[in-house]
Design goal:
The chain has 189 residues and is of the alpha+beta class. The protein has helices spanning 18-29, 82-94, 131-140, 142-146, 155-163, 168-176; strands at 11-14, 32-37, 40-44, 52-55, 74-78, 101-104, 108-114, 120-126, 151-152. The chain folds into two domains: 7-57, 2,3-Dihydroxybiphenyl 1,2-Dioxygenase, domain 1, CATH 3.10.180.10; 73-179, 2,3-Dihydroxybiphenyl 1,2-Dioxygenase, domain 1, CATH 3.10.180. The chain contains six helices and nine strands, in the order E-H-E-E-E-E-H-E-E-E-H-H-E-H-H. The strands form two sheets. The protein has a five-stranded mixed β-sheet with strand order 5-8-7-6-9. The protein is globular. The structure holds fe (ii) ion.
Length: 189
């Protein structure tokens, strides 16, 4: 019997900072609260009933060794275009929210933000503008097989090039080739 495939629906995090997390996800991905009480909240930024859950049960404590411990590395949200990714970078920078690191993975341009609990949230656009093509790139590109993490970039430099009018078609290969490296290569842990 074939597998009936369910769709990915939401992620739920445990937090000691319920109010901060709600505010951050509202600012960063435009999520709105569907329901909340003192111990939990559920948010969505699309037509789904919820995409994010937060459980703030009593007795939780932060994990000071979080970055060295196993567990989820990040969630990810995709824009429909590079222009939208850049516009959001600019808007968030104005709110004092900047990426921890940015990578051209070959299949996507990805900017990783740290939420108030230290969970990474990847904001990305598809380099091909097409899931079929970026999927094929993952499966068959020797370039991706050699280096599936990719090339770091400085988002401010890329934003400036974008605003100066450089089209994505020439900008992305340059990012990929390392023309926009950050001054310091960051840790992705
Ligand atoms: Fe990712």
């Amino acid at each position: 019997m074939s597998t009936i495939k369910p769709a990915l629906h939401h992620i739920t995090m445990k937090t000691t900072r319920l109010a901060e997390m709600i505010a951050w996800y509202a600012t960063v991905i435009g999520a709105q609260v569907q329901f909340q009480n003192p111990g939990a909240a559920w948010m969505t930024n699309d037509a789904a009933n919820h995409r994010l859950g937060f459980l703030a049960m009593p007795g939780l404590e932060d994990d000071p060794g979080k970055t060295a411990h196993s567990g989820m590395h990040h969630s990810a949200f995709e824009y429909g275009s590079f222009e939208d990714l850049m516009a959001s970078f600019h808007r968030l920078r104005g709110e004092g929210i900047e990426p921890a690191f940015c990578l051209d993975h070959g299949l996507t341009l990805s900017m990783y933000y740290r939420d108030p609990d230290g969970n990474y949230v990847e904001l990305q656009c598809d380099n091909f503008g097409d899931w079929a093509q970026s999927g094929e790139f993952m499966r068959s590109s020797p370039e991706f097989a050699r280096d599936p993490i990719g090339t770091f970039f400085d988002p401010a430099k890329v934003y400036d090039a974008h605003v100066a009018g450089r089209p994505f078609a020439t900008l992305q290969p340059a990012i990929r080739a390392g023309a926009f490296l950050p001054a310091v290569i960051p840790s992705i842990a």
